[in-house]
Model the fold of this input.
Amino acid sequence: MFAYLPYALRYYARSYRYVPPLLLFFVAISMFYKDPTNQVLSSLSFGNFVIFLTVVWLANGYIELEHETQQQLSILHIGSAGKYYLAKLLFISCAAVLLAVYTLLYPLALRVFTAPVTATELLVSFAAYVSTALLGVSVGIFFNGKLIARKSRGILLLFLFSVLSLAGKSIADQFPHSVGILALLLPPVSQTVNVVSSWMSLSGSTRVWGLVWPFVYSFACMGLYLKLMSRGRVH
Done:
């Protein structure tokens, strides 16, 4: 299965599908951190939005990149559909984590923070970046032609779901509890950003839950995706 990863990298590199989302990513990060600031956590929390949108785009473009015939050949080579899709998830998740690393290191390398950056702030921000990157993967992989028959419908649903994910906390706060609790079904991107930006004022349990829940949500979604794809419950 791990032997598939170098092949996936070469195949994906030749497609150039990664160019638009990565261009958006690098431009957004460089523009945001062009001026010095002493607001470490609140500034770093911005990276979560950029990572999420970028990875959603990357994952959606990558997950069904191969032609149907090539997919079948890859499945035969790896041994099973489950291993094939697991390898694809592993590849795009590694790429997403690399973006998280870059987002953390970029402002540090440029020394845009005028205030001292503590180890806690670095660890919290990195954990949030990685969890948000995995959330992007877990969202982008579902809206593909095998699970949603019409591509135009899949793209529209992907856009709406991504926007709702970014506004999840606002939805939960502005609507009655019976309606707002439905926001828990959305990827907790906005909740993660809130935890990072409000870190100093939150209780210990809220901090832990805010950092752990995105990982739980991501792995649950990826597990569901693998189950659907490996069992052939697709269009």
